[in-house]
Fold this sequence. Notes:
This protein is 81% helix and 0% strand. The protein is mainly alpha-helical. It comes from Belnapia mucosa.
Amino acid sequence: MHIQPSRADLAAPPLRSALSPRTRLLLEGRVVPTLLRLAWPNTLVMLAQASVGLIETWWVGQLGTEALAGMALVFPGFMMMQMLSGGAIGGGIASAIARALGANRREDADALVLHALVVNVALGLVFTGLLLGFGAALYAALGGEGEALQAALLYSDVAFGGAVLTWIGNAFASVLRGTGTMLLPSVAIIAGVVLLVPLSPLLIFGWGPVPALGIAGAGWAVVAGSALSALLLGWAVCTGRSPARLRPARLRWALFRDILGVGAVASVSTLQTTLTIALTTAVVARAGGTDAVAGYGTGTRLEYLLIPLVFGLGAPLVAMVGTNIGAGQTARALRIALTGGALAFLVTEAVGLAAAAWPEAWLGLFGAEPAMLATGAAYLRLVGPAYGFFGLGLSLYFASQGAGRLGWPLLAGLLRLVVAVGGGWLALRLGGSLDWVFAALALGLCTYGIVLTTVIAAGSWSRR
């Protein structure tokens, strides 16, 4: 099996003696032990971030159902930004650097750091402009109204006003992960999490001379945590603690293409995921009102938390697959991808089955409104058992980033969108209940994982 290389990868295979020990580990280490060794720092930090998200949601829930619904309206957009900067464009950055190091193109790897910063700063500023300018229209279109809409805007304007900090931090983190360095970005992100934990309730409710900012305080805490993480990650890259270092370089379209050739396509896949949740949120709002949106949003928060959980395995998959593709070891790259997919399925399916069995244990953390609990429980019971297929497909999406081949992940995401949203809308048009909407969501997740696994295992990476 052979993958058509990019122009940048047409150099002769690198001499192993010229490679760093970390790169040799990616090329020669045993697959499962190496994956787990690289995954645990990412998994730890993602669990820390997930915990903070839950804590922040709990604090906001103390402000009332309207505030909780407002946060649910903002959450898809904020998670989309995180996935774009850290997973999609971030995956393009990590993939480009991994392939450059695998082919022993060290000067290109260094130059890619500057190109990554240019890309992410530009996108961060665009994101801020769009959400500040059109946030009200977006949240209203998703079903926000009255106090829920006002709460959404208060949180959104602050959190997205500092969006460029998130993009800068994820640029540096992706550079480090592309070299196989997983612990340093994890430590930096955990530092931001540690700052956010006490800062969020302090700014929400106030204390002493600190005024109570309400839901806007939660946004300010997010911005402060992102700033600290970006500062520490920038320090790690700029002080030479990475095989790829930030150096002055001439901007070249070929290097932008190395990043965006993967990152831009991956961004479409991320938009598909977010659009699926956003459109379904609008369907739920029309069928059940504010309480139903709060319940559905709280339930889907668990689905969104699977993304950073799988990212614990996904970041090593990008680095390992990309490095092996750069070195011409295609069969090993495929074996790494399928092994990672199996591990991701086991973890996410366990989470989904637990949520389906005891939905109130999750939902009860955030509120006690009967309508909210009923909608959230129905969602988790029907969609939770399909979480394993979501984890499987998502891990193979990350592996495909490393390979630089994202056509099939994009198509699989489109199929999920059509099945989930189209099926749910049709169910309501035919007089069905929200249960049928959630059944369509579950079928969409199964379609995503099964299609992607089938085509990659059949050798889609070897064909144009």
